[in-house]
Amino acid sequence: MSLNRNVPLATGLRYRGRGNQLAFVLHRIGGLGMAIFITMHLLASFFGGDVGRSLNHVYENWLFQIFIFFCILFHAINGLRITIMDLWPKLLEHQNEAIWLEWAVFIPIFGIAAFVILRSAMGG
Amino acid sequence: MANAKSRTLPLTKRGLNFEMFMWLFTRLSALAMYGLILLAVIGALIMGARNQMSFADILRWGFMPNANHVQDTNVPDLAPWENPFWKVTGSLLLLVAVAHGVHGCVVIADDYIVSERGRNIVRIISIVFMLSMMGIGLYILWTS
Q1: Chain B residue numbers touching A1 (CB-CB < 8 A)
Q2: At A21, is the secondary structure helix, strand, or coil?
Q3: Which of A38, A96, A116 sits opposite B2 (nearest CB)?
Q4: Which residues of B touch A93 (CB under 8 A)?
Q5: b/e B34-61 (16+ beta carbons within 10 angstroms → b)
Q6: Would you call B70 helix, strand, or coil by DSSP?
Q7: Which residue range(s) make up the domain with A68?
Q8: ipTM > 0.85?
Q9: Residue B79 belongs to a domain
Q10: A83-106 pLDDT per residue, tens
């Protein structure tokens, strides 16, 4: 535990790291979002009852579904990029291209999914 | 910038402590989750999901192969979906995902909690939380 980063959150947010920084922030948001969702989901199924049912209503909401699908998909695709680049470090020379490739994979998949979720939310 | 050479030690020369082990575990568990989700999706297609389930239902099953996740679909018989094979697959996915997720939360907490005492408290809480989530998840998977 000798590593002492000690950088306040506000300074971290002012850091302009462009695409990589954005991916880093979204990866954290996605990971935390999934952790909170899975914890709630497990507790709701375990305890059941009225609280469980009202939690189920929260994540059947289309807004929540779009948010959680964003978390899962971005975390999965960005995580795959990190895994590939970390296990084959020579690829780090192409990290900017990897970010663009990542968005090129993410945007169409997420767009189609968001369209399907919205269409069924509107009853179509 | 695009031509900057990476100066990274190869994996075999980096030594192994707990942080390094968890760094590697995070990557390998991500690959394992990809494999397990793919296995569940392929299994669903073999069991007839193509005509009986929507794409969203297949993904719901894929992220956690638990028979509760398909009971509202047009699947005629839940028996193949309750097979012990899927319970084992789901248990593996649960254990790997909870360990991966809790370690991720510890990494985030370490960025903002820098005192030795604070980090120890975070570690104790995270271990208790991880074990209770694993227990609750396994209970749900094997009794529902």
Answers
A1: 116, 119
A2: helix
A3: A96
A4: 2-6
A5: eebbebbbebbeebebeeebeeebbbbb
A6: coil
A7: 17-121
A8: no
A9: yes
A10: 998 888 888 888 888 999 999 999
Residue B65 in domain: yes
Per the CB < 8 Å rule, is B101 touching A93?
A: no
**Those residues with Cβ within 8 angstroms of residue A98's Cβ, 6 or more apart along the chain or in another chain:** A81, A85, A91
pLDDT on residue B96: 96
| Domain that residue B139 falls in | 26-143
DSSP 8-state code for residue B6: P
**Per-residue pLDDT tens for A37-57?**
999 889 988 888 888 888 888
Number of domains in chain A: 1
* Inside any domain, residue A1: no
Q: Is residue A81 part of a domain?
A: yes
Residue B19: both structure tokens together: 């942080």
| Residue carrying the six token digits 């030594």 | B15
Is A7 within a domain?
no
Encoded tokens for B72: 């509202």
Quick check: A90 and B5 CB within 8 A? Answer: no
Chain B residues inside the 8 Å CB shell of A117: 56
Two structure tokens written together for A119: 């269409």
Q: Measured between CA atoms, how close is B81 to chain A, in angstroms? A: 19
The pLDDT tens digits for B67-96 are 888 887 778 888 888 889 999 999 999 999
Residue B89 lies in a domain: yes
Distance CA A98, CA A104 (A): 10
- Is the pLDDT reported for residue A1 higher than 50? no
Confidence of residue A124 (pLDDT cuts 50, 70, 90): low
Cα(A73)–Cα(A107) distance, rounded to whole angstroms? 10
Give how many domains chain B has, as a whole number: 1
CATH number at residue A22: 1.20.1300.10
Within 10 Å of residue A18's Cβ, how many Cβ atoms? 9
